[in-house]
Design a protein that fits this description.
The complex is a heterotrimer of chains A (about 475), B (about 350) and C (about 325). Chain B is mainly α and about 350 residues long. In chain B, about 45% of the residues lie in helices and about 10% in strands. In chain B, helix 2 runs antiparallel to helix 4 (about 80-90). Chain C is globular, with a radius of gyration of 21 Å.
Chain lengths: ~475, ~350, ~325
Amino acid sequence: MSLFCKNTSTFKKGGVHPDENKITSEIATRAAALPKQVVLPLSQHIGAPAKPVVQKGDKVKVGTLIAEAGGFVSAPIFSSVSGTVVKVDTAWDASGYKRPAIYIDVEGDVWEDSIDRSEKLEKLSDHPELTSEEIVNRVRANGVVGMGGACFPTSIKLTPPPTAKATCVIINGVECEPYITADYRLMMEHPDEILVGVELLMKAVNVNEGYIGIETNKPKAIALLENKAKAYSNIKIVPLDCKYPQGGEKQLVDAVIHREVPAPPAIPVNVGAVVQNVGTAYAVYQAVMKNKPLFERYVTVTGKQLHAPGNFLVRMGTPFSQLIEACGGLPEGDNKILAGGPMMGKAVTTTDVTVVKGTNSVTVLTNTDAKRKEAQNCIRCGKCVSACPMGLEPYLLAQLSSLKDWERAEKEDIPSCIECGSCQFTCPAHRPLLDNIRMGKGTVMGIIRERAAAAKAAADAAKAKEEKK
Amino acid sequence: MYILIPVAVLGVIGLVAALILFFCSKKFAVKEDPRLGQVGEVLPQANCGGCGYPGCSGFAAACVKAAEKGSLEGLNCPTGGAAVMGQVSEILGLNAVASDPKVAVVRCNGSCENRPRTVAYDGMKTCKAMNACGAGETGCQFGCLGCGDCVVACQFDAIHINKETGLPEVDGDKCVACGACVKACPRMIIELRKKGKGKGMRLWVQCVNKEKGAVAKKSCAAACIACGMCEKVCQFDAVHVVNNVAYIDPEKCKMCRKCESVCPQNAIHSNGFPKPVEKKKLADLLPKPKPTETAGAEKTEGVGLALNKEVKSKIELEKTVQKEEPKAEKSKAKIDYSVTEDPILRKIRMENTQQS
Amino acid sequence: MANKLVVSLSPHAHGTDSVERNMYGVILALLPALIVSFCYFGLGSAVVCLTSVAACVFFEWAITRFILKREKTTVLDGSAILTGLLLGFNLPSNLPIWIILIGALVAIGVGKMTFGGLGNNPFNPALVGRAFLLVSFPAQMTSWPLIGQLGTYTDANTGATPLAIMKEAIKSGDASVLDKLPDATTMLLGNYSNGFGAGTIGEICGLALILGGCYLIWKKIITWHIPVSILLTVFVFSGCLHLANPIYANPIAELLSGGLLLGAIFMATDYVTSPMTHKGQLIYGVSIGLLTIVIRNWGAYPEGMSFAILIMNAFTPLINNYCKPKRFGEVPAKTKK
C-alpha cells in the first residue's frame, strides 16, 4: 500500500459516492429568528418519551426544564425560548405521526441565570473538579443526545457496559450525507470548543486516545483542526476518503482504527470505541463547561431550488416552515422536504414539523429530483452486493422480505442491515430494495424479540418450578 | 438344479431385506396421535390456510394440541364452518364451541371525497411501507392507506379496492373470516364482526380515528367525532366512546339502528337490513349539525321526537350524569400518551441505525 | 391543495445507473467488433446482425404485448437489442435468414420470456439460441466463410477455422498438423488468409473485443473477475496440456481462437446469469475456463465456450447460495472455535 503513498483511509466494504451537493459549505452560520411559537416533542431521542413537568400557563425561560427523562434510556427536554406554555398536546413530527409535544408561546428572550453566556474558552486543565462521574452527570442533566440523527442519549454511551472496555473516543466529523454542512460549519466556527469537548468525552470514559475523522472533501476543516489539535497531544485528526456511509458508527470505527464491530447485539464499545458526533462534542462542552442545556443546534437548510440556502443556529421547536421562509420559501410545484439528508433523512408530511435534537438538516428536493423511477425486474447485476457496507446481499433480503420468508431472512443476517440505502441508491433497476428490507428487518427483529421473551419466560417458569421442589 | 441357486440367493436377500425393514419400522417408528388422522379426515383438505395454520394437517395438529388443554377456542376452519368444527370437537370429545359466522369489516370511510389528499406518497405500493413512512397521503393517521395489503392477503378473493373511493370493500358472500386481512392491515382497521342474520345484518362504526372531534373532522369529513350521541341513544349499553372513537359491541347490539340514525357524521354504517329507506327518513329529519358538543346534545333531543318516551327520559337522565364525564375523559386522553405513541412506529424508530 | 409534499422512505437520492445505461453500454462496447466484421464479411455480416436484432426486438415486443399481455413493453431497455446483437455475433455470416429467425425466436421466446423476461432467465438467451441452432442445423452452423467477400451472403466460399485444425491434430495425434495454424497476430486482428474460415461474425477480431472489454471495465459495467479468471484458467490449463503433449495447441492460440474472447468478455459476464459475489464470479470463471478446454480437446464439438457458459449458468444459483460475501464484523470460522 505504501507504494501509492495513501495517507487517507476508509472503511473496507462497499459504499457509494452520491453527488455531494454541499452548496452551503462556505455560508457562515446565522442565528435563526425566534419563532412565535415553539413545539417541543416529548420524544426527541431514542428511548422512553420525556415526562412533562410544566402545565398550561406556566412561565418558562430559555433553558428551563420542561420535561424530565422518562426512564433509564431517555433524556430531559429544556425550553428553547422564554414565554408561556400553551398546551401539552400532540403535534406532527418527522416520523409522520402526531406525538405528544409541549407548545410554548414566545415572549422575549430571557435566559436562565445558571447558563454561562460568556464566550470565554474553558479548558479542562482549569477544572480539576471534573471527574468522569461529574461529566457524565452534567451531560445527562443537560439532556445531551447524539446529534448525528440517531439521538441516543449520550450519557448512556459514556457509561459502557462492564463487559466492554473503551480504549478510544472517535469523533464523527465525516458528514458523508450529501447536502448537509452543519457539522462542517460547526468545525470551522467552534474548533476550540469541539476539541475541549473531545477531551471531556475522553475523560468521561477514561481513555487517552481521541480521533476526529473528517472526509477529505473538507480540507479547510482538516487543516484548521489539525492546527488547533497540536495543543492536544492525544487527539488525532484522521482524514478519510469520501465514501458514504462513512458516518455510520461501524463504518467509522473500521475506517479510523480498522476494527470491525461484530454483528448485533455488539456495539462499537465492544471493540473499544466510543463514537460521538462533532455536534455532540460541542454540546458536551457547552453542557459541562457552560451549564447550557441542549436547546439549540446547527441546522443546514438546503436545496438546489432554494433562493438562499444557509446554515442556521436554530432553537429546538422552530417549525420547518419558518426556516424555509428564511431561505426564500418553497419552490413551486411538488416538493419533498427531508428532516436530514437525502440518503437517510425522513420525508415530512407537513412543514409544521419542528426542529428537534436530531435535526441536522432541512433538505428541500423538488419532485423532479427526488421522484423515484419505476422499478424494473432485478437484473441480478450484483451491484447492491458490492455496495452493501455490511457485506449483506440486499437483492436476496428484499426478495425474502417480499416473500415473507422470515426464517431464511434471519439466516441471511437481515438484522445487520444499517438501512444506509446504498443498495437502493446503486440499483440500476430502481428497485425499492431498502423499503422491502426495512419491512423484513422490522418483522424479523420482532420475531427475535418474541422468541427471546418466550425463552426467558420458559426459563423463569422452569426456575420457579425447581424452586418449588 | 441350477435354478435353485438363484432362488436361494434371492430368498436370502429378500429375508435380510425384510429383517432390515422390520427392524427399521420398529426402531424409527413415529408415534402419531390417531386422532390426528381422524380430524384430518373430516377437514375439507383444501389446504387453504384460512385457519392460519400451514394446511389442514397443521390445523389438525393444532386442534389436537388445543384439545389437550380442553378447549377449541380460537380455532376455526373457515371453509368447513360450524359443521366441520362440530365434527372435530366430537372426535376430540369436546363440546362444540358455538361460534357465529363472522365477516371482515373495514372500519374506515375516508374516501377520496371525505378525506382530501394532502401528501403524495412515492414509494413501494404496500400499506406496510407507507405506514412506516408516516400518516399516509391524508391528514388522518389512523385511516386506510389504500395500497391493498388486505387484498393481497386474502386468499378467497373476498376483498377488493373500490377504485372510486380508494377503500377496500369486503364481499360478504366470499369472506370466510379467516382473519388474514386483519393481520395484514398495519393500521388495524379491519375487524371480524358477527356476520348477522338474514343477508348479514350488521351495524358498525366506520372509523377508528382517535383524534379529538375537531381535529378528526378536519382531516376527514366522515370521521367519528366522539360526540357521544350514539352512546346516549343506545338503550342496550352497546355503544361506547373510548379514546375519542365510538365502538359498537356486537354482543350487546340489538340492531335497533338508532345510533345510525343519529350519527351526525354518518360514521355508523349498516349492512343487510331490509329497509335502507329508514335511515334516509331519519336523515331528512335531522339536518346535519356542527360537530360541537352542544349541538350534539341538542340534536339528541331532536332524535328524541322519533324515539319513544322511555328512551327520551333515559337520555335526559344520562345527559346530566354524563355531562361531567366527557371532560374527565378528555383530560385523561391528553396525558395518556400510550394512545398516541404508535407502537409500530416506535419500534421502527428504535431499530434505526445509530449514527452518532 | 395544488402543491403537495411528497413522502417516501429513504433513500431519496438515486445514482445515475440504470438498466438502459448498462445495456447500451455493452452494445457500445460491441461496436468495434461489429465494424470490423463489416470490413471482413461485408453484406453477410450486415444482413445477419440486422435480422437477428430486428427479430429479437420484434419477438420480445410481440410476446409481451400478445402473450403476456403486459401493458408496459420492455423493448426499450436495450436487452433485446443486446441479445439480438450477441446472437448475430455467434452466427456465421452466411446463415440464411429463416434460420436466424428461428434462432431469435428460441433465444427470446424460450430463453428469456418463458421465465418472465429480463432478470428471470437462468440461461443466457443468445447462447440458448445459438446452442439450439448448432444442434438443429449443424451443417449450416459450421460452415465458415472466408473473409473479404464483401458482396456475398449465403453464396460465400467457406474454409476450416483454426479450431478445426486443433481438433484434427488431437484426433490424428500428429502435432505437425498444428503448424498450419495462423500466427498470433493474424488471430488477434482476424485477417485470416490461406483459405481459413474466420469463424462467427463477432469472434473474428480479438483486438476489437479486448477494446470493448476495457471499455466495459472502465465504465464499471462489468468487473474484471469473470473475464480474467476465464482467460487465465484457459491459458494455464491449455499451457499445461501443451507442455505435456504437443498435440494440444499452444495456450496463445487457444486464447485467440474461436469464441473464447467474445464469450469471456461479453457472454459470461451477462448480469442475469452470472454469480453475484466476486468470489462466486471467480469460481464461475475458472469453471468455464476448464470446461471450455475440456470440450475443445475431448468433446464432440470443436468449440466449447458456449456450452461451458450454459453449463455454468445452470450452476449459478448454487454458487450464489454457497458464496456469500463476508459479513461486516464476521468472525472467521477458525477463530470462532
